Fold this sequence. Notes:
This is HCP-like protein. By secondary structure, this protein is mainly α. Helix content is about 70%, strand content about 0%. Helix 1 packs across helix 2 (about 20-45), helix 2 (about 20-45) packs antiparallel against helix 3 (about 55-65) and helix 6 runs antiparallel to helix 7 (about 125-135). It is globular.
Amino acid sequence: MAFKFFNLAAANEIFDTTSNSSSLRKLYNINKEIGIITLANMYLYGLGIEKNIIKVIQIYFKLADKGSPIALNTLAFCYSNGLGVEKNEEKAFELFLKSAEKGNLVAQINVGICYKDGAEITKDETKGFQWFIKSVLAGNIGSICNVGYCYENGVCVGKDEKEGFIWYLKAAKNEHNMSQGNVGNCYKNGGIKMDQKICALFCMKL
């Protein structure tokens, strides 16, 4: 039954508002997109339907053509790893960038990683760091951890372990698991003044 209704959503047969309200139209489009993405995931994981990676790709192509940031980022991942499509790193970066410019927080991290590592694009650590910061400013906790990593290891910026710790701590306080482990490691391995209680708290996250 769930598959039937998500499939109808993809076919645009459930509901079509005639209201002139832009907010209602926006809400409708968001909900429709969620329904279509859920349908794609059902095909991807075989939830109530036989797995079909080709169908997954077709659905995401349809959404991407309409400018969906989530679909653009997902297709980029597929091109980057050769999942359901021929591997094409240039195409992957192009789609990551389109999604990132539309405000997708995950895509912004992916663009940053591409620039940082020189994957799919000419290596440019400065641009990579700028994209990490942009994602941070948009509220991405995971990117806060990335900035901490950059400072701790001298990637993209000058090495500054204390600054890295500060960024890790910011993310850790927002329940980011990896950052909580990193905070514990900072206390455990030295470089940061030991606080036994805090160390014990975050080391439990390792």
